Amino acid sequence: MTKEEAWSASLLAPSEYLTDGEDFWQVSGPAVSRRSLWIEEQEGTLAIAFEDPGDPDNPDIIELSPVDQTKGEFSFKLLPFEPFTMLRAPSEGKCAFEDWDSNARYSHLRFRPSNREIASIFDEDQRERSDAASLDDQGLHLLALRDRERRNRAKSLLREGQLKSGRDFYFAAFIFQHGEEPSDYLQAHALAMVALARGEPSARWIAAASLDRFLLATNQPQIFGTQFQVEDKKPSLRLPYDPDVISPHVLEALGVQKSH
Q: Its domain of life (predicted)?
């Protein structure tokens, strides 16, 4: 079907809002309904054009694809955001309302499946570290080689777009935290930030620890105090450490506590 006039659609949305593809904020104004200009269907996906009141010559084009009987995926064609997951509303339900809080942030509904392979890689990473303290030099060398293999596979999964959920990125952050170069630790920090953004609160510690490890690897003092080494069978804080950068209240808010 190409711009089939027999089809029509309307878009009901707040008149003003901002989005980064994850959250919506500064939502205000009455709900405004816009009628479609044209609709195209190709391989089960509908492309629907709506007039942009601010730029009539360049309509907003959305793509809508069904997932199952209860939900579908909605995306803006020209914006680099992952598709929004939309639930089918009951026919008697209220699909829009006016009580938006312009000071609030609204997270849209997402159904991100977790990747079983990255979970398995993480489990292997943790299992091999359960007795790492007893490894000799040869054992540590072999562990480093297996860490590199796990990291390379995690890189492939990232390139292929196979990691979706906050839990996926949380697992990947730990895998890169056991890297060899400052760039590995910085990658771990970035992955932990994605995990937090996607609703995985457990990633708070690894977000702090990966930044501390990056700082130490680049000859700078750690700032959260998460990195320890064992001396005489007792944990000792790795130096240098600058305790004045991050206040105790921030550490408490992050749930980051120094090792005992």
A: Bacteria
